[in-house]
């Protein structure tokens, strides 16, 4: 059975922030998996692309991640800084972050990150880094954590609440998640597409380094 956008939206509902007190996860979307092309990966479905590096780079690395995913957090802490230093900051690749929330907290975190960044990719990556560094497993009230992160970024509590009530951004995140699964075959986090080459899981820097170098030589 294919899970519809309505079903996922209901599962991840942010109405009244009630879902932020829940730690339940939803089942992955069951759909026919299809291999995407580099063009599919580079073009966002609904939301403005959050990316670092030149638009015309020969290599694009696209990360699909969920903020509450511990493997994603480990990659963010240990591997992404090395990729950024070696390839993004030197202008050799473009790095795209795509939200693939696995639970209501991850969805809310992505909504808040988008709100704080307000279209600024550098700021978005900085806020996302802060989100990844939270120990979500320890908190029974993740709403308080989101409010704290918002305050660190200059928002007061009411502004954070207003951000989290943005159903338009939330629905677009859900739409992009459905697209990533049904069109690109993404069903776990973190998953990476290096142009059309796929890497699943928290792979070490050496794996990315090898694959990126091979593509840059083409």
Automatic annotation (TrEMBL):
Domain of life: Bacteria
One Pfam assignment: Thioredoxin_4
Molecular functions per Gene Ontology: isomerase activity
Assigned keywords, A-Z: Isomerase
Family as reported in the entry's similarity comment: Belongs to the thioredoxin family. DsbA subfamily.
Chain's role: May be required for disulfide bond formation in some proteins.
Protein name: Protein-disulfide isomerase
């Amino acid at each position: 059975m294919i899970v519809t956008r309505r079903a996922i939206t209901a599962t991840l509902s942010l109405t009244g922030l009630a879902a932020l007190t829940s730690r339940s996860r939803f089942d992955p979307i069951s759909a026919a998996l299809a291999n995407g092309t580099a063009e599919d990966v580079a073009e966002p479905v609904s939301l403005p692309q959050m990316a670092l590096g030149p638009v015309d780079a020969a290599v694009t690395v696209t990360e699909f991640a969920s903020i509450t995913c511990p493997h994603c957090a480990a990659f963010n802490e240990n591997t992404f800084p090395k990729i950024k230093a070696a390839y993004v900051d030197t202008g050799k690749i473009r790095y795209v972050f795509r939200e693939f929330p696995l639970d209501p907290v991850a969805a809310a975190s992505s909504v808040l990150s988008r709100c704080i960044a307000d279209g600024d990719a550098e700021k978005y990556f900085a806020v996302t880094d802060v989100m990844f560094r939270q120990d979500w497993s320890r908190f029974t009230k993740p709403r308080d954590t989101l409010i704290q992160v918002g305050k660190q970024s200059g928002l007061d509590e009411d502004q954070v609440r207003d951000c989290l009530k943005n159903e338009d951004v939330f629905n677009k995140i859900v739409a992009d998640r459905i697209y990533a699964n049904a069109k690109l075959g993404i069903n776990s986090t973190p998953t990476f597409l290096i142009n059309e080459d796929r890497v699943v899981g928290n792979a070490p820097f050496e794996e990315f380094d090898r694959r990126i170098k091979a593509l840059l030589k083409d």
